[in-house]
């Protein structure tokens, strides 16, 4: 029989060896600056972490890279270069539906999908109860760096890359119709050709006065009729402002649907701690010129501090979310039709 202390020592050595083996891939992870080698699976790449959308638009953010990752899913039987979609998650982080529904839909269309994780690399689980953990500008930056990365992949058509996002990620689609956001990261002509925002918060519209320079991508918004987290109605006002200034927008409203209606897991839940702007006035934020206005009247705030003070008073907690199988399927058909037009599929 082996002495007790020897068995204990062997167990300790084995544990150390296992820990080293587990940590080795993480230490050896490759950070990709381009995809010329055609990697698959989890792909680590660098982004940046702006503290505000003003920093992003004016390139005043810390240039120190932040390493994040995405999962690249290619359609089967790929022949030639294929279109691609960047998928931007919401405040709950990556969910099963991002792959179960949307990766499946895109791959069946012959479109690659790149699911970007904006939270894990920054040590964040979710932001539902505290959105201040990470500026939404970081989600914008991540999508743009993903665009740059995918544009280098010989399997992907760099002229046909789009973006789809959900809630927090849905507002990424709204921001990226503006050239000022695109140029916060992109130096060349790389640009999204289609943008889709599911149930974004339209209470704050990032825009410019006078008429902004647009990136050229059409925008689709998908909103739930009963959404009490990011209500549908402000999205109509936002769309009207965008259309007035030449931005192509289509808004789909899904009857009886709540926030996260496209989830593939049947559920309905109340989240008491989640913060919402549903009781706040709708505003237009022109960060390029540092001006802030009420919508739809157009009254100008004397300062960003005045607007912030008003918003601190109107933020509330408690929201509902739940899946709607019928409306989720309907949204698939609407996305397919939108992308078929935008990408020439």
Automatic annotation (TrEMBL):
Domain of life: Bacteria
UniProt keyword terms in alphabetical order: Hydrolase, Signal
Record's keyword annotation contains Glycosyltransferase: no
Signal peptide extent: 1-28
Membrane spanning residue stretches: none
Segments forming domain Dienelactone hydrolase: 70-272
Protein name: Dienelactone hydrolase domain-containing protein
Upper lineage: Bacteria, Pseudomonadati, Pseudomonadota, Betaproteobacteria, Burkholderiales
